[in-house]
Amino acid sequence: MKDEPSYKNRKVITIGVVSELTGLTERQIRYYEERKLIFPERLARGNRKYSFSDVEKLIEIANKREEGVRTYEIRQEMIKETKKENDKKARNKMLRGQINARFGIQKD
């Protein structure tokens, strides 16, 4: 059960529903995928499935675009955020390892 994604990250929503929820056209949604801003799951027949997290991200993207932010800038910001998140995870893992080593805690 732990390996299952949370309901927010499960890819179950069709592009038509995402379009209705976000107010974006299907073409706009596909464009944001082309620009590597979102990553829907692709089924065997080519259909796309989105998650609630994808819907939230699309709304954020649309708001930034309305403010005049270019898709390139949005992508660069996403890359920085992902790097920062990965660095934080690595730092936390290292600290846990150091604490475990210091107090003689063995991992099974």
UniProtKB/TrEMBL annotation:
Residues 12-80 form the HTH merR-type domain. InterPro entries: DNA-bd_dom_put_sf (IPR009061), MerR-type_HTH_dom (IPR000551), MerR_fam (IPR047057). It comes from the Bacteria. Keywords: DNA-binding, Repressor, Transcription, Transcription regulation. It holds the Pfam family MerR_1. Signal peptide: none annotated. This is MerR family transcriptional regulator. It comes from Cytobacillus spartinae. The lineage of its organism: Bacteria, Bacillati, Bacillota, Bacilli, Bacillales.
